[in-house]
Write a structure and sequence with these properties.
Blueprint lengths: L7 H18 L9 H12 L25
């Protein structure tokens, strides 16, 4: 009997899904941030709404900086 192997494109998709799931398991939110979410933080920090923020670290990392665990 002949083995049925995934096409290179299907294999790439499977590997990407596995890598993404592993990476996301390290983030307390369970996913990576979207570029728009990071841009929103930057826009806020550049706005008048953030005028009283001074010499601070602001983490937009889904909680990763505050945890010391992995999957």
């Amino acid at each position: 009997a002949r083995a049925c192997l995934p096409s290179p494109d299907d294999l790439a998709d499977l590997v990407l899904a596995a890598v993404t799931a592993t990476r996301d398991s390290y983030v307390p939110r369970g996913r990576q941030g979207q570029p728009e979410e990071i841009a929103n933080v930057a826009a806020f920090l550049c706005s008048e709404e953030a005028s009283f923020i001074n010499a601070s670290d602001v983490f937009a990392d889904g909680g990763s900086a505050g945890c010391t665990y992995g999957p």
